[in-house]
Structure formats: structure tokens, C-alpha cells
Specification:
There is one protein chain. The protein is α+β, with helices and mostly antiparallel strands. Helix content is about 30%, strand content about 20%. The strands form seven sheets. It has a seven-stranded mixed sheet with strand order 19-20-16-14-18-22-23. Strands 1-2-3-4-6-5 form a six-stranded antiparallel β-barrel. A two-stranded antiparallel ribbon has the order 7-8. A hairpin with a 4-residue loop joins strand 10 and strand 11. Helix 6 runs antiparallel to helix 12 and helix 11 packs antiparallel against helix 13.
Length: about 625
């Protein structure tokens, strides 16, 4: 009878029975070389990872783990020999861990949908599978593998590599192609029905990381007694082929139920999962500390800080001008907050599982759907998924919605401002009469006369907000979903303010002025004067000066802007019309009939707004 059959039936070898005392693994390690050779051979030849029964009071998983570790070098040598016989070799220089390193590439050995090949570190037996894609995607895959490891589910060790792509002509710069190198790991076999129990141990992590292709054939393998996640490229924000998941990767862990849908690759492995297995797999996620998540994502972000720089206000070097660049994953704050939010969701799910027993005859799928339906889901009234982030703040990447870019804390800030805007717009506000005086309580916004009716009806709101509810516009703005205003610093009459010889940086581009130098498209603009005291405290608290860049909306560079525009104030969503105190126009541009029309329109809206010209005359 062959060794494999002996292992399946649980019979011992011709050697005397092993002692039952102590660990079964220790017993196996004491076996003589001949028996060890037979055990290794059995492990290499086995077509299933879990045996129906095993000898020596040893679990099948322990047997596979020991056998694989003992056979590691032989299995690696066999893999390298197989590649050498099948594919031609060529030398390639790859930058690995910041150092140019020589590799032996097995040309034509690509596996999967991305460009790639097997490569051997020259002069060693370190074998890697290297695949290429966008840097953001490759960094994301490396991060996903490390997050699996935090939960105790093995994944191939991944390292970022790159090579220089020469420019097509002398006018173009060289570029760098980025990839991820996954170190070879011993594979006993692909999982089958005997391995399903072990595969299910990673169900919670598959859901947490939204690894939609987790159990697609070849993406999970049996290795040394574990179901290792070999290819995790479909985790987090990315689909396996590089597309983004958009709003589908959010605070709600929809994968708990979607993995049971008919098209799911996971279904054959999880359909017979027990309630205890479900809870244990989720506890792998909930046992990971927030701090570990933050540290792991920060490592993937590859923050690079520089101290000192040119202060744009003084044009002099300033040691206090510290900048931080992200050279790894581009949205680390988003990932940290989303992963923690998804962990909290799964912990709430776990608690509900403990409180709700599975009913007699109820399938695990129906049980999970019932528990999930009892949870409160994260929802927003602002349709972030329909508002496209401006390329001004996404490094030129098009097609990213706010839903997949904003952190939960950023969404909450916008949401709070939106609710405050909707509520306060219904208030009847009696504004104080400050005459033609502008003060620190005033902030200014310029708009075209053609927008007057809309502003008096709906308020001064963000262009994204006006155009994107239900449609989507992708407005190019450096302050997404914010209305821009200019703070008045000091106390001026209207005439004094607009006759100034020097305006603050950026201000002259947006406000009409009587002195030379204003842009032509602002000369006919109307200036709306908003009284800050009439604006909801929530809206004002959430607003911020662009020059300070201290709002949480700057996380992940989701706001751009000019550090030297010191009077530029960004207001999330905007302010209602009842906070407008004055409208200032260039009288030479408007006829008496048009001026009367403006006043009549203000009256018809029931608003208490005074009309002035740039010289400060009440019209």
C-alpha cells in the first residue's frame, strides 16, 4: 500500500508505533530519515490538503504543516527547475527596497490578467512572482496582504519593485513602472471540499477587506496546513483587474451577504459554514487593534516629510514650513477610517450573532442575512457617489467620486453642514442695519447677475452641490463641495474697501474693484455680503481659512488651495439666502430698470437685503 493510502486510512508505517505521549508533531520529528522521506513524498504528491483520517493522533493540518516545512527546499528547487525547463531566461534590473537589484526573469511565465512573470534574485534561490499595474494598485495589494497577516491568515510576502521605462523621445522624461513582487510560497494543492473548514477561517477577513475574488480558483491555496490568500489584488479599493470599486467599499460590510450571491466564488466554501465558525472568523477581524491598523496603513503610505521651505507670504526661507508627501498608497486617511469603521460594523454584527441564535433548519446564509438586516447602516443625504472629485485634488486622476475619496469624518462634516443649511434656510432672520460698513463680521462672495434669482432662492452654495445633486458634474475646484468667500479684515466703508490700492492675494481675481488690475470677467459681478452672525454656528464651525489648511477636509489632500490666500474662506455646502445682508454692484453697468428689478426680486423673496453701489451709495 502506498504511503498516501497509509495516511488516508490512519495505518502506521512498518516502524513500531510512535509514542502517544507529547505532541504529535514532536513524534513526527523523531521519525527516522526513511520515514521522513516517505512523508515528504506523500505531501508533495497529495491531491487533497485534508486527509479523511490520519495516523499518530495527529490532525491532518499538523501533518500537512510539518511535511510542507520539511519539504520546503525540495519543493522550491522543483519549482525553479520547472520554470527553467519551460521558459527562456533574461536578466533584468529591478529596484527593490530602494536598491537596484539583478533578477533572472523567466520570460513568458505570466499568470493572471496583469503583466507579470516569475523572477529569481540573481545568485540566490529567492523566487518571486512579479506583476505590474498602477503604483496605487500595487501599494494597495501589498497593504492587503499585511492586513490579512494581522488577522492570522497567511498571504504571500509582497515587496514593491520598479524599473525605468526610457522616454519615447528627448522631449519626454523617463517614467517608472511599478509592480509588486510576491515571494514564492509552497503550495500543496488547491483547496477542495475537505479543506472548506480551513478556508472559512478567513471569511471574516475576506469580508472586511472586500476581497471580492478571495476564493476564485488559484487565489487561495493550501500551504503548510493553512488556506493562504495568494493573490489579494481584488481587496480594498480595487477590483482584480485594476478598476476601482467606488462607493461599494464603504462603511457597510456588504460582503457578509454578497458572498452568498449566486455568482460568488466563495459560495461553495461558505454555504455549509456553522454559526460558531462564522463568529470565530469575524473575531479574527475584531481582535485587531485600531492602533495596529493605523500603523500598518501608515507604513504603506510611505510619508516623506521635508522641513523648511519658502514662505509665500515673505518669499524667504522658513524652517517652520514643513511639508509632507505621500509616496505610497494615496489615500491612507481614508483607508484607516474605513477599515476601522468596517471593523466596528463587523463587531456589531458579531454581537448580534451572540444575541440571536440560529433557528432550527435555518441555513447559514439566511441567518447571516437576518442578522445583517438588524444592523444600522451608514447612509448620507448628500449623494457623494454622484459628485466627482476634481482632478485639481486627485493628482489628475479622473472619475473618482467623493464617496470613494472622502473619509467618514469628512463625510460627516459635509453632512452636518448640509443639515444645518437646510434647517437654517427656513429661519426668519432680521439682519442688523450696518449701512455701508463692512467689518470682520462680513464675508464676500462674487457672482454673475444671471445667478441672482437662484442665489436669492437657494442661497450661495457650492458649484458641486448645485450641479451634482442627481446629475454629477465633476466641477473643477480646489475646494470641493465648498462655496468660496473672502473675509473682511478690519472695518471699512464700502467705498474705502473697493478703492484700495492693494488687495489680498487672490481677492482681486474674484471681486470687482475700482482700481486697475481686476480681471475683466469680474467687472460686472455682483458682490454678496454675508453676515457671519446670521449663518448657522455649525456651518461657520465647519468653514475654514484656506491659508491655514487646518480643516479635516485636508486629509488625503482632498482640499487643495493657496496657502497665501489669507482671506479666502471655504464654506462646506454654503450659506442660505437669509444670511445675505447686502448686494453691491457697479452702478455704471446696470440701468435704472435693472436696478429696480433687483430690488423687486429681493422683495419678492421676502429677504431683508440692501442694495449698494461700489462707492457705498444706497440704491
Amino acid at each position: 500500500m502506498v504511503v498516501n493510502s497509509l495516511l488516508r486510512t490512519g495505518k502506521s508505517f512498518s516502524k513500531a508505533p510512535l509514542s502517544m505521549a507529547g505532541s504529535a508533531i514532536q513524534d513526527i520529528l523523531k521519525m527516522d530519515d526513511k520515514v521522513l522521506d516517505e512523508l515528504i513524498f506523500a505531501q508533495q504528491k497529495a491531491k487533497t490538503g485534508i486527509y479523511k483520517s490520519t495516523p499518530w493522533n495527529c490532525t491532518a493540518r499538523e501533518l500537512q504543516e510539518v511535511g510542507t516545512k520539511l519539504a520546503y527546499k525540495d519543493m522550491l528547487a522543483q519549482k525553479i527547475s520547472s520554470l527553467s525547463a519551460k521558459y527562456p531566461k533574461e536578466m533584468k534590473i529591478l529596484n527593490m527596497n530602494g536598491k537596484d537589484t539583478e533578477f533572472v526573469v523567466f520570460r513568458g511565465s505570466q499568470g493572471g490578467s496583469n503583466e507579470g512573470y516569475w523572477a529569481l534574485l540573481k545568485g540566490t534561490d529567492d523566487l518571486y512572482y512579479v506583476k505590474y499595474g498602477t503604483e496605487a494598485q500595487m501599494r494597495s495589494e501589498q497593504l492587503a496582504g499585511e492586513l490579512y497577516e494581522l488577522g492570522g491568515i497567511p498571504s504571500a510576502k509582497k515587496t514593491i519593485v520598479s524599473y525605468i521605462v526610457p522616454a519615447k523621445n528627448k522631449y519626454s522624461p523617463n517614467t517608472r513602472q511599478v509592480g509588486v513582487a510576491s515571494k514564492w510560497m509552497p503550495i500543496n494543492c488547491l483547496p477542495d471540499e475537505y479543506d472548506a473548514k480551513i478556508v472559512r477561517e478567513g471569511f471574516g477577513l475576506d469580508c472586511w477587506l472586500a476581497n471580492w475574488d478571495a476564493l476564485k480558483s488559484g487565489n487561495v491555496v493550501m500551504s503548510a496546513g493553512d488556506a493562504a490568500r495568494l493573490d489579494v489584488g481584488g481587496s480594498l479599493c480595487y477590483r482584480a483587474r485594476g478598476g476601482r470599486k467606488g462607493a461599494a467599499f464603504g462603511e457597510n460590510v456588504n460582503e457578509l451577504t454578497s458572498f452568498f450571491d449566486g455568482y460568488s466564488n466563495s459560495l461553495p466554501y461558505i454555504k455549509n459554514m456553522t454559526r460558531d465558525e462564522l463568529i470565530q472568523s469575524i473575531e479574527r477581524v475584531t481582535s485587531i487593534s485600531d492602533q495596529k491598523i493605523i500603523e500598518t496603513v501608515d507604513k504603506a503610505a510611505q510619508y516623506k516629510k521635508t522641513s523648511g521651505g519658502i514662505n509665500p507670504l515673505t518669499d524667504e526661507f522658513d524652517w517652520g514650513m514643513t511639508t509632507t508627501r505621500i509616496t505610497g498608497v494615496k489615500n491612507p486617511e481614508y483607508l484607516k477610517e474605513i477599515l476601522i469603521a468596517r471593523k466596528i460594523y463587523m463587531d456589531n454584527f458579531r454581537k448580534q450573532c451572540l444575541a440571536l441564535p440560529q433557528q432550527q433548519g435555518e441555513s447559514i446564509e439566511h441567518y447571516i442575512r437576518r442578522v445583517d438586516n438588524s444592523l444600522v447602516k451608514a447612509t448620507y443625504d448628500v449623494p457623494f457617489e454622484k459628485i466627482e472629485m476634481s482632478t485639481e485634488v486627485t493628482d489628475g486622476v479622473k472619475g473618482l467620486s467623493m464617496a470613494e475619496r472622502l473619509t467618514p469624518s469628512q463625510k460627516k462634516l459635509y453632512e452636518d453642514s448640509y443639515h444645518a443649511f437646510k434647517t437654517s434656510s427656513k429661519n426668519k432672520i432680521i439682519l442688523p442695519d450696518s449701512g455701508n460698513i463692512l467689518s470682520g463680521d462680513s464675508m464676500l462672495h462674487a457672482a454673475s447677475y444671471k445667478n441672482l434669482n437662484e442665489i436669492l432662492t437657494k442661497g450661495i452654495t457650492s458649484g458641486d452641490f448645485r450641479g451634482s445633486i442627481g446629475t454629477g458634474t465633476g466641477c473643477a475646484t480646489q475646494t470641493p463641495l465648498c462655496a468660496d468667500f473672502w473675509d473682511v479684515e478690519g472695518k471699512y466703508s464700502i467705498g474705502e474697501y473697493f478703492a484700495r490700492a492693494h488687495f489680498n492675494p487672490g481677492e482681486a481675481n474674484f471681486l470687482p474693484r475700482t482700481t486697475p488690475g481686476g480681471l475683466s470677467n469680474t467687472r460686472s459681478a455682483m458682490v454678496f455680503v454675508v453676515n457671519k452672525k446670521a449663518v448657522s454656528p455649525t456651518i461657520m464651525k465647519n468653514s475654514f481659512k484656506v491659508s491655514k489648511q487646518d480643516s479635516i477636509l485636508y486629509k488625503d489632500n482632498n482640499m487643495a488651495g493657496h496657502i497665501h490666500y489669507n482671506t479666502h474662506r471655504a464654506v462646506p455646502i454654503g450659506v442660505p439666502a437669509n444670511a445675505i445682508e447686502k448686494i453691491i454692484i457697479r452702478r455704471s453697468v446696470y440701468s435704472p430698470d435693472e436696478i429696480q428689478h433687483i430690488k423687486d426680486l429681493i422683495s419678492s423673496k421676502g429677504l431683508n437685503i440692501k442694495l449698494y453701489d461700489l462707492e457705498g451709495n444706497l440704491l
